[in-house]
Amino acid sequence: MDGNRRDFLKLAGLTALGATGASSINATTAAASTVESQAEASTGGVRLGMVIDLRKFSKNDALIERCIEACHAAHNVPDFGDDAKNEVKWIWSEDFETAFHSQEFHYIREDLKGKPTLLLCNHCNNPPCTRVCPTQATWKREADGIVMMDWHRCIGCRYCVVACPYGSRSFNWKDPRPAIDEITPDYPTRMRGVVEKCTFCEERISRGLEPACVEACSNDEIVFGNLNDPDSKVRQLLAERMAIRRKSGLGTQPEVYYIIDDPRTLQETAPAAVVEVAEGGDHA
Amino acid sequence: MLEKALTGNRTYWTWMFFLLAIIGAGAACWFWQFRTGLTVTGLSRDVVWGLYIAQFTFLVGVAASAVMVVLPYYLHNYKAFGKMTILGEFLAIAAVIMCMLFIFVDMGRPDRIFNVFLHPTPHSMMFWDTVALGGYLVLNILISRVSLSCERRGEPPPKWIKPIIILSIPWAVSIHTVTAFLYAGLAARPFWMTAILAPRFLASAFAAGPALLILLALIVRRLTTFDPGKEAIQKLAEIVTYAMLLNVFFVAMELFTALYSDIPEHVLHFQFLFMGLEGNNTLAPWMWLSVVLAVVALVILVNPSTRRSETTLVVGCIAVFGSLWIDKGLGMVIAGFIPSPLGKVTQYSPTAPELTISLAIYAIGILIVTGLYKIALEVRGQMKTEP
Ligand code: SF4
Ligand code: SF4
Ligand code: SF4
Q: Is pLDDT at A26 greater than 70 in this prediction?
């Protein structure tokens, strides 16, 4: 775990530097690790991504709620309760079949059936939402690929919401502030009339922290990192496991991956404790 | 010249105050919406665009249709449209202003509207639509103003205006094409992902717009000594007929592609429109009414005897306008959101404030048309009663 954390901090440093120019990225990486600098040179910059390991989630996993809660509390996301019409959310859960709506799952593996699946902005590498925005209030940050939002520029036309194929964006139909339980002072609140969504915790990674939803996990259920670095944990997982992306056929290149292997494959790689967790949940 | 809209008889003023009352009610609702947020509408996280954007889309078509009188008159020297062109241009001005207002009331942060110009973004179709609509408004104001003041002085229009008029023709086509591109290039919304969308928009515009123009010309003829001429009305009726036939043909092509291929994400939207999905069939009765009206319209218009009789022609024009308004001003936009990209079906129906605001914007358009038509007729000395 400590090792991962160090890797991650290194990555965060890269991200922050990325904003200042490509040459400085290469210089620092060379100092940090030659392998990594080669990766940088060949693929160009950092590409942040996420791997959600569905093997490690069980049907009624309290972890799902913890992740949502961590994100929404950290980012002052309003909670309108049952009022679906005004709903605002950055990360939420749908059952597996809905999350991968465009695929058809007929004779699906038992443990995947109705499995709660966390959904958030995919920080698409080719995002249609930024393409349509008439004010550049949402844009892809070239240094690390995060799809950003400027709540002070957004005119609330909702064209980006229309263009996102994943339902990742929410519009503030009314003033969100009264619906925030406890306002986190070091993060801005939004006003009515603007669009918001997950920002990959851009404010946290610039301070060397992992995203809030990742931090809420205890066992690498969600892994975050640089997809351009072949040695990163995300890439290692993707190289070994079977992972899918939502609506990949649309060419948006989502950067959030879902591992859908059989949970029993955890035995091969993970310590015994993990297997117990998985069995305690799904396969009890 | 504008002062001519400020004098008039009792009927004129009663009508204008009636419109102003609706506008006042709409303004009050809008102010409430501005203070509370768009939550006062029926829109939701899944159905983010509704009545406002649908009216915008429909009215872009009405604005573009002015070209159907301008083109034959200026390019083919078709003299019968001489008296109609100004009506067409004035209708276009009113329609574009209504379009802009519908966009404005749909915005979450109308106070930041200038961000569109402060941060021009060529990769956004909305940017191009703003450019196209703004340009079209300027063109039509310029053209109608210059030709009308020349007419007043009894002079022929200056030579330099001719190329500007010619420019307004492709420009009219462009506004509706770009409006179709707002929808047709979105991978997220299979219902709109069809190359026929822009042609279909144009066909329906060239049917609904001239149909409205016929109705307006006949109303004006009844109220004043203005006479558009039988030939002009009949020519417009032919244009409506051909455009409506084309529109129905295009719709049939869309239906074939969607239903024969049987790809669920295409079929489901049509299923929602005409049959309803998961018990939500808010639009189905409307869509069937639209189909019936289209059939009625075509029977009247294609048949030469009913097309030539003014009474049946009026019925035909109302049917065309009604059918296309339902199709584009209700069905087209809303069905794009149902089902959602995650397959969810969400109910949408406009709320009372939403309807009042929409009605008020139409009242503004009618007010502008009334005022502008009055100016044109005053200049030509065709008002029945002097103020
Ligand atoms: S998931 Fe949606 S909002 Fe996020 S980057 Fe992709 S298209 Fe944009
Ligand atoms: S709602 Fe805001 S972010 Fe989205 S397209 Fe409009 S201006 Fe851009
Ligand atoms: S990455 Fe950050 S902003 Fe995005 S869902 Fe996770 S906690 Fe929320």
A: no
pLDDT band (50, 70, 90) for residue A32: very low
- pTM greater than the 0.80 cutoff: yes
Q: Per the CB < 8 Å rule, is A134 touching B126?
A: yes
Q: Which residues of chain A lie closer than 8 angstroms to B118, CB-CB?
A: 135
Mean pLDDT of chain B: 93
Which tens digit of pLDDT belongs to each residue from B324-382?
999 999 999 999 999 999 999 999 999 999 999 999 999 999 999 999 999 988 888 77
The ligand placed nearest to the CA atom of residue A154 is: 2
Q: E strands of chain A, at which residues? A: 48-53, 91-95, 116-120, 138-140, 147-149, 170-171, 195-196, 222-226, 243-244, 256-259
Q: Does residue B384 sit within a domain? A: no
What CATH number should be reported for the domain whose range is A2-268?
3.30.70.20
Domain ranges within chain A, ordered by starting residue: 2-268
Does pLDDT of B260 surpass 60?
Answer: yes
Report the candidate in A76, A70, A22 with the shortest Cα–Cα distance to residue A46: A22
Any idea what the CATH number is for the domain that residue B79 is in?
1.20.1630.10
Query: Which member of A157, A158, A192 has the closest CB to residue B37?
Result: A192
**Does residue B156 form part of some domain?**
yes
Scanning B303-322 for CB atoms below 8 A from A yields none
DSSP β-bridge partners for residue A147: A140
Helix (H) / strand (E) element for A215: namely: helix A212-215
- The range of the structural domain enclosing residue B53 comes to 2-379
**A205 Cβ below 6 A of ligand 3:** no
Ligand 1, atom nearest to A163 Cα: 7
The answer, for B181 touching chain A at a CB cutoff of 8 Å, is no
Using a CB-CB distance cutoff of 8 angstroms, which residues of chain B are in contact with residue A85? 39, 44-45
